[in-house]
Please model this.
Amino acid sequence: MKKENLHFTDNEKAKEAGRRSGAARRKKAAELQKLERKAELRDIENREKKLKDMSMPLTGAGDIDTSQILKMVLSGAFGVVLAERAITAICEAEIKRVTNRASKLELSIINDLSRSEKEALLASLEADLEAL
Model:
């Protein structure tokens, strides 16, 4: 009977070394992808924080310049998710502003208005809502 060769040939050794180096490359690539993803998530969080800081006045007095935020959204300064959130925050703030404006007019004041004044007020409120 033939003796079985228990020793690896040079070709087999090279194949095994290639497998090990391939595994190491894949492992390093996976680690790099993980780090890149963390950096990307950190960047998204920073953008969200910046947007949150900018949009704080939207929920309050409404002092924020919404055109500035819209310019940033259109210029691509934010990703899709942040752009959607920015536009939603702006719309919610405008709806709140219009709602507050309407609620501030008490019923007694509205009753004291003439018919033409009531129609002008109603037209103004409708125009504000349509602008949204």
